[in-house]
Amino acid sequence: MKRFITLLEEETGKAFEKAGYPAECGRVNVSSRPDLCEFQCNGAMSCAKQYKKAPLQIAEEVAAALEGSEFFSKVSVVKPGFINLDISEAFLGSYVKEMSVSERFGYENTGKTLTLVMDYGGPNVAKPLHVGHLRPAIIGESIKRISRFAGHKVIGDVHLGDWGMPMGQIITELKERKPELVYFDESYTGEYPGEPPFTISELEEIYPAASGRCKTDEEYKKKALANTKALQDGERGLRALWQKILEVSVADLKKNYDKLGVSFDLWMGESDVHDMIPGMVEKMKADGIAHISEGALVVDIAEESDKKELPPCIVLKSDGAANYETTDLATIMYREEHFSPDAILYVVDKRQELHFIQVFRTAKKAGLAGENTGLEFIGFGTMNGPGGKPFKTRDGGVLRLEKLISDIKDKMYEKIKENKDLPEEEAERTAMLTAVAAVKYGDLSNQASKDYVFDVDRFTAFEGDTGPYLLYTMVRIKSILARYEAEGDDKPEGDIKKALEAGSPARKVFLDMTDFSRMIETAFKERAPHRVCAFAYALANDFNSFYHETKILSEADKEKTAAYIALLKMVLNMFECCTELLGFEAPDRM
Description:
Elements: H1 4-18, E1 28-30, E2 39-41, H2 43-51, H3 55-65, E3 72-78, E4 82-87, H4 89-101, E5 115-119, H5 134-149, E6 153-157, H6 165-177, H7 200-214, H8 218-233, H9 236-259, H10 277-286, E7 291-293, E8 296-299, E9 313-316, H11 324-339, E10 343-349, H12 353-365, E11 374-380, E12 383-384, H13 401-419, H14 424-444, E13 452-453, H15 456-459, H16 467-486, H17 504-514, H18 516-525, H19 529-549, H20 558-582
Parallel strand pairs: 5-6, 5-10, 10-11, 12-13
Antiparallel strand pairs: 1-2, 2-4, 3-4, 7-8, 8-9
């Protein structure tokens, strides 16, 4: 099904051609002055110079060619040459009716089906998720869902931090605390225990203790480095212990990501490409891509067009150890070999941009990524607390993500119990659904690259541009539909076009919905979940105006009521599609 605005442009393009001008001048935009018109074409200005005519004259000729068009109810020209357009009721109604019976509201992917690998999440094992993990998880999840809806194949990878010095530190601390563990007996040849010798709570306490001790105890740090090397060299007991660390950590991560409605197709980490690194490094050396500088193996990435000096990419440190650049490069090579992606997308803090410039340029220079494989950095801004400062707990620590969700859920529970007497189990579930919507919408409604303030009071409000407002609107529609169904079976089938008889409020809802396909296309191309939020918020506002100004169930004309119900069903379906793309859902009651 063609985009609504594409059909308008084809119609105005024909009019330009009929008047003797290029069809491409018929570009149409949504009017920035809805009080004057619904759409506008400024093509007369763009071709005035070429044809040595006043824009106003060209616009009047095109307007004359549009006379009698079934697309427009009104075409007018204003100085210096704008063509103002209002849509005919018949065309608007027919288009929305076709949308209502089309799969995915008529959206079609008209281009190539792409294979995309998405790298988002990025947590470290043995550490709890904190507020800093919120943005990559929910932005990445939404972009993944939007991309799939847009018709593309997407492989989501959590990309765990499960290798390197942190693992050596944890193993060292465990050895000091529990030296009797069989994992530390180098002569042991039997099977290792099935149960992990620690809980997630113990691990979460062990890592900061070990990390802190490494900063002050040089002997302890040497042990941690030695254990890191022994692990990476494949010492049997340490590898088995490391597997238990992964097992316990990943189970906890999955539980917390599940609460957020975030999932991954792959649970791979830096360790999965460890064995690929030696071959990758040797190839870089053999091809003359990498060279030794101050003891380290580096790749020069500077280009003549750079506006500032860029340091080389360090592939191996001076002690021969791998680093984040090394594992990221090997991971690109792995993804290229296994998935042949059209693009690899990284949803990462924008402060890591230099790292990814180095990695991407090295990957291309060394042939690790295909010539036509896009490497895309989607940098997001920081999530700050009140006053614009980094989000912290009252005692200055980093707030755990689980605690943030729990606190907001409790806040929503209080509001829900004040407004509605729901059974306890339903109230708890509703509070959790609303809390997740508040958190996700509060984040995703901002342009990802920008910093933003996480304002709990604003994000949990039932009014304004918030997740709870959107859910409340959906629940309102569900309530009306339930009451309509309960009234009996003697109901005519609704013709959604007839809902336009409600006048301007219904018309605005119809016009909002016609923009759905364009919104999806833009949200995909720009990797921009905030486009979905803006669309849903505008639709919610206009629907609520329609609701307040229109008799729906009390309308005497049963055919009109049936038409309104058809409209409500479509609006609800569209909201449910949007919330699915954003990663949350609405309860039945609030």
